[in-house]
Write the structure tokens for this entry.
Amino acid sequence: MTRSSVHAGLLPLVACLAFAHAGAAQDTTAAMLQRARSHYEGLDLERALPLLRQVVSPQWPFGVTTAQRVEAYTYLAAGLVLVGQADSAVSYFAAAIASDPFADLDPLEFTPAQRTAFAAARRKVFAVAVRPVAEARADVRTERIRFTVVTTHTAGLQVLLQPLAAGTPFAVFQGENEGARDVAWDGLMPDGRLAAPGRYALVVVARSRLSPRTDSARAFFFVAYETATLEDTLPELARGALLAERAGSAGAPRELAKGVVVAAAAVLVSHVVVNRDLGGGQRAGATVVAGIGVVAGVAGFLTLSRRHEIPANIQANLQRQAERRAANEAIRRRNADRLAQAVLIVTPAAGVGP
């Protein structure tokens, strides 16, 4: 067996071991937290607190998720309150809030003293956050799309929606806020139109009322419609579909040609057919005939060149165009009704840009 084949055979084994180690790391952290919670709930704080300190220590050798870190900080702080170390408890509660601004204490599980320390920690930390946008279907006539945002303490809050394809941000909430808040959106743009399909950013900006700090957060989502198929409007009437509204020009060249033919024939007869003995008088007569033919042709040309309107055709064309406009207006109304009844589909989107 060659060296390269040995290496190739070892690769899957190494990958499996790495995967197993990653899984064990999570299991080990979860197991440590479970042991710490059991000791905490049994009021065995001498055992619970060291285990929790290990999990939040930089030397902890295993992976820790954000949720696990918040849990460890929270129970460590709660335990310190119970042993009379309130200042240290506030610091660990602050670390939990900084990791997750949505962190909170259930009043059924934590004492008033613990909740007081947690409130003090919230005043020390300023952060804003938004939950990932949840998938939703909403009939905008009766329902709303809801977003959940939070500020860790009292702040001036602005919640904006930004269409990423085109358009400017617009506010869906602006005012004072403290803690978590649900913000409702009716699915409409500022001009009252239904939001266009595409990618959007939910942007949350807040300014603390307790310190000169600001913070922001954002989440992304897609908007789509669930609606009946829209109708296409009818195209404008083509020129060939309309009746001729003026007449007269088509026969004018023909009349002029007739006059020229008569004149040419008269001159030809005067030179070829007429006997020389008849004298110049006959030729003069032919010239007169030629002149009359030309004059008649020109007169016919001028007469027929004067185009005149055909009222019946004009009226018929106006009627056709009015019917076409009425049909398109009806189509637009039906499409508007269908859009007004559309169900808005919102789905979460990953990423940090368009």
The chain has three domains: 3-124, 128-228+343-349, 239-339. Strands lie at 128-130, 136-139, 145-163, 170-185, 198-208, 214-226, 246-247, 308-309, 343-349.
